[in-house]
Amino acid sequence: MVNYAILTWLVPYIGAVLALVFSKLERVRDVIAALALFISALLSTIVLQEVISSSEGVIHVSYPWISTFGVTFGVYVDSLAAFMAFIVAWLSFLIGVYSLKYMEGDPGLTRYWFFFDFFVGSMLLLVLADNLILMFMGWEGTGLASYALIGHWYTDKDEKCVGDVGRKALGVPMWFSPSHSGLRAIVFTRLGDVGFIAAIGAIYYFTGTLSIPALAENVAGWAGPLAKAGVLFPFLLVFSLGAMAKSAQFPFHEWLVTAMTGPTPVSALIHAATMVKAGVYFLLRFSPIFMLAAHSVPGAAPQVHAYFSAIALIGGFTAFFMATQALVARELKLILAFSTASQLGYMFLALGSAGLIAEFPMGFLAGFSHLMSHAIFKASLFLAAGAIIHAVESKYIDDMGGLSSFMKATFLAMSIAALSLAGVPPLMGFWSKDTIIEVAKESEMFLPFFFGVVTAALTAFYSTRMVVRTFLYEKSHNVEHLEKEHELHEAHPLMLVPYLVLALISLIGGLVWPIYGPELLSEMVKSVLGIEEVFHPEIHLDIGLLATSLVMVFLGIGIAWILYQTGSGRSAVISITENPVGKALYNFLYDRWYLNSIYYIVIVGGFAALSRGIFKYFDSLIVDGFYHKFIPWITERFSTLGFKYFETEVIDDTYHDRVVRMFKAFGSAVRKVQTGLVNQYLVMFFLGLMLILLYLLWVG
Amino acid sequence: MILDYPYMFLSVVVPMVISLVFPFVDMDKKAFATISTVLLLIPLAIVSWLSIIGGLNEPILDPIFFRDPSVGTFSMLLDSISAPLAISIGLVTSMISWYSLRYMEHRFEEMEEEGHKPPGWGVYYMLYILFSAAMMGTVLSTNLIEFYIFLEISLLPSFLLIAFYGYGKRERIALLYLIWTHVGALAFLVGSLVLGLNVGTFDYFNPVRAVANLGLGEQLPASIITPVFIAILIGLFVKMAVFGVHIWLPYAHAEAPTPVSALLSPNLIGIAAYAMIRIAYVLFPSEFESLAPYMLGLALLTIIYGGLMALAQDDFKRFLAYSSVSQMGYLLMGIASVTAIGMAGAILHYAAHAVGKALLFATAGVLITQLHGLRSIGKMGGLAPKMPITASLALIGFMHITGIPPSLGLWSEVLILAGVSNFAVAINQFFWVVLFLLVGIGLSTAYSFITMRRIFFGHPSEAAGEAKEAGITLLGPMIIIAAVGLLLFLVPQLLVDPMIRALESLLG
């Protein structure tokens, strides 16, 4: 029987190949590529249904691939993988439909569709894989597609850049062309992947298997020796390095910001809804197993605890740190990019806290449900942003304003999605984020919790600012100009429908959450690998905490509203940014805490200087000089000196004569060699060879 | 399995012998190219066929074709360890032979414009075939002397190819290449002679019993075991161009005519890595294991150093040459892990690097022919819109050397790193090794994709103005090489499974 789960990830790959095959028949190519996504989405639905309805709740099929190395060609679908694949596949399809219109007429469309479908296949592969290498393969595949699609417009025209052309911070340029951004993405993420694959190697060393379920079954096999040696904590960090880089956690966050050079559907799919979630998925997949280690391996608990604390701290800090940068961003897509990294930080915070609280599944579900709700509303926001940028022909919110009357449906969709992002009840984002803040509080780590709460206000602020500056506010000159030309109109239905649908899901999902939420959550956690206890999720609201978080949210919304939607607020904004302290703070946030500049000065500059310096002074001067100047020179010196020495001072004449002749011959041979006559080298070479052969014959 | 006739030996020697008449016949260059490609497809066909029928599950041997009481026996061996090399050599040499036609046409014109009159097509293809077939012979050898003779035969023509058709100060560089490789070869030969004369045979593989002569070198008197082992190791290190003795490689590989660079860089130097397993480990297993941690250090140093130097280059071919230094570090790293998976990864990476580096040198050749000899990366840029196929092939090349799916390089990288992790955990150095790997692999990724960007992406450079895609004569062979690399990605088990089994039994 054909396995649907395998087909789920295989079909998009086939679509990618077919897109290449039909590159000349443009319409056929586009439809086939989108159709493959649709089939994959249907298959993922069947798989999800199978997993929910089956008694053990897991589909595990595996065929040997490299049997001597334990690599199998197979899938392991528990409730985690099934839900994840379902979300990924349907989002991919919706965004694929959007692309049909958005990318119409692009000269690189074959390449676009190839990498788009290749990405979807790889993403589903990493979700569904039953062993670590297969997962790693999907993981790397998403990286390649991300690289190619970020740099889709690789001719690097100024209008395709991210950042303000000409702006510098600490002397480092702060605008990034598509090809530069693609390069940054692949280098940053592959750094993390080194840790991932090295850890996989170590696990293989201890257990002799690469199977993901076996990792849980035989947790003592690999965690035991590491815990005993006291290195389980750093080991888990090394293992998670790939996840941190992929999910743009501090200090690997920079690549995601500039990834916005990619076409907007790509930003929506890869750099908001799916690939950047791979790191969170990694934690969802493996943190239950780490918990098993804490419970069942002697001595592991404190080290696992330290690991989860570190994850919570990294996540909390990233959430806060990236949100501050979203406050001042002027590019619509950049606001969303900062926001994405910040929200990913929330998910890390959830999973880090999960390991520190009594009920691990609660934290697990907080992270997982936020992953889902964020995927939906952020995809909607990005797609809407694409339509807006398309309409106003500018990436800057300064060139927008007052668009609500021209793009009513887009305004509706973006407002709903933004409110969900801001965490306003009863939207989906509210429920999932609030649970995160709750588990963060329960973890009893002050700093991550504090970051979580403050970020709630920041998120509400920048979400409101974004919607106000785009749709309300006053019309910018650009908008007035376009209005005169009658160029402003609602997006094409192929584009509008996907993001409107997603926004509505976010709304309706939130409305019914109190009724169906617990049931959905219990299905999501039902058969997750490594979670053995039965968990009954319920929605309980901690009133004090709820009040705190709502105060934060409305504070953020209120301040943003006053600052950007009222006349006095606007003049306040101007006076703040003109004040020296205000200006310095603005620049600090706008230039991303100067971290990008520091990376370029220290790391890029450091390696460049090291590379040039070593090449010039060591490789060329010392190594090359030693072998190719010093040795020939010293040989020649010896030959001349020796000649003199023998001739003038030592030993008797007859003996003398023979040696001199020998040296003379040697000298002239050397000189002849230097004349560069190829024939003579040949003769010499043959003579050498003959000597060796003669020697061999003699020996024989 | 012992064959009835020495098919492998004949497939190596027959093309060589035929090629010797090339300089004396008057033929069209196309005829030379066709005959040469066909002649080089013979050994590829033979080794592929033998690999398929036996599934590489047991060693396949030629009947012994030379026997001497003190030298031992000469046979040829195709097993799971030598097959990936033999297939890569067969593939790259035959495809580049086709590629040579258009490239050398350009080179001849260029040299004539400069007022030189290099030896003609017959000589070129004779030397090319001698070089290619000798490499095949080296890899299939079973005896130190046999290995050495084939190695010598490969060195002479490659030296002449550089001297006749190379760039820059080609005669000086050819001589430099010759001397350096002989320094290496001499160390290797001295070690081999001392060993063979003392233990009474030069066979590292016993073709009668079809097993490796494991530990043969350790039968030497205790006092000379280490010196002999070190001599052989030094010889191989020079050949591999590891850090410290790498300096000849950038000269030779950058200034050789590009088709020859495409053979030198991935095919020839990697043979030393193969010999590390097939000869150095087999003869001196316990010495090898005791030096392994130091070799791992040397490998990491070579990876990082080669990567740093590659970053500093502006000449595309010199950049590729330094990248080869770094890549040899990966091979050495897999071997130094002394694990079956790590060593299998190294052998597989020979194949991945052969595909990748052949593609990249061929790309350099395409740029040279299409852009009037342009080699300076700084003057390129924005070529992808004009040369999309070349850009795709170069990307596939870089994917092979950085280990990105769907390329064969993914498997070799995974296997090498898994092997190295195993070894690092076993010697308690896991975190240090990870740290150096972060730098090393980070550098490899950075130099690859930085160069990809500098050549193909960004604003169109002046050179991009009149650039256009090369024809099938250059791109055809490249496409075939790339396709093999991508197809092998899907079926790595055909090579890897028998190889890991063989290495497991070798390592005990």
The biggest beta sheet of chain A reads: 2 strands, antiparallel
Question: Strand percentage of chain B, roughly?
Answer: under 5%
Instruction: Please trace the helix and strand order of chain B, writing H or E for each element.
Output: HHEEEEHHHHEEHHHHHHHHHHH
Q: Helix content range of the residues of chain A, please?
A: over 70%
Q: Choose one word for the global shape of chain B.
A: globular
If you average the pLDDT of chain A, what whole number results?
A: 91
Element-level helix/strand string of chain A: HHEEHHHEEHHHHHHHHHHHHHHHHHHHHH
Summarize the structure.
In chain A, the strands form 2 sheets. A two-stranded antiparallel ribbon of chain A has the order 1-2. Helices cover 76% and strands 3% of the residues of chain A. Chain A has helices at residues 4-21, 26-53, 79-102, 109-128, 132-150, 178-207, 212-217, 219-228, 232-246, 254-258, 264-273, 278-296, 301-328, 332-354, 360-392, 408-422, 428-442, 446-471, 477-484, 493-525, 543-565, 567-578, 580-590, 595-648, 653-674, 678-699; strands spanning 59-66, 71-77, 168-169, 172-173.
Account of the 3D structure:
Chain A has 700 residues and is mainly alpha-helical. Chain A folds into 2 domains: 1-150, no CATH class; 151-171 and 179-590, no CATH class. Helices cover 76% and strands 3% of the residues of chain A. Chain A has helices at residues 4-21, 26-53, 79-102, 109-128, 132-150, 178-207, 212-217, 219-228, 232-246, 254-258, 264-273, 278-296, 301-328, 332-354, 360-392, 408-422, 428-442, 446-471, 477-484, 493-525, 543-565, 567-578, 580-590, 595-648, 653-674, 678-699; strands spanning 59-66, 71-77, 168-169, 172-173. In chain A, the strands form 2 sheets. Chain A has a two-stranded antiparallel ribbon with strand order 1-2. A two-stranded antiparallel ribbon of chain A has the order 3-4. The relative contact order of chain A is 0.07. Chain B has one domain. Helix content of chain B is 73%, strand content 3%. Chain B is built from 17 helices and 6 strands. The mean pLDDT of chain B is 95. At the A-B interface, β1, α5, α6, α9 and α24 of A face α5, α6, α10, α14 and α15 of B.
